[in-house]
Fold NB-ARC domain-containing protein.
Amino acid sequence: MRKEFDLKMWVCVSNNVDAKDVIADMLELLKKERPRLEKLEALQGPLKNVVMSKRFLLVLDDVWKDEEERDKSKWENVLAPLASGGFGSKILVTTRTQTQTDSVALLFSKVIKKKEIVKLEGLEEDECLQLLNSHAFASVENPPDDHKKLRAIAGEIVKAFRISIGSKSHWWCFEF
């Protein structure tokens, strides 16, 4: 993934979308400093410059849909500076519920005006456990038996996590 994208951003959105906050969050991730700018246009310019001709991955986590026209306008403001990004840039959008998933995907497809939208399925429990274990025990060579208890705890974490988000996560990928 490091080689695929020049820039990577992960922004938690939640239900109160504020274009200025989302852009400020992106800039903070990219520049390692929170911008002190107040106006939307003043934030959009630096974001456009940072992503210009660079291939980026943007994860917009926990997006909710509110009122269609108001949301569309907000997302147009957020996404407009990203149009200067490099070919093959991707935006990954997560939602909490299946009912939100389809309406958010439709909203984003209107804003981005792209026909290629890919719905990504969530990982199965064993895949989640394998992923967690590969990170949790990455530096351990030939883990000794005392890690059995930790692996059991990892299994419980995965089960609890999958129950809290449902059996499938709701993800959409948009090519920008």
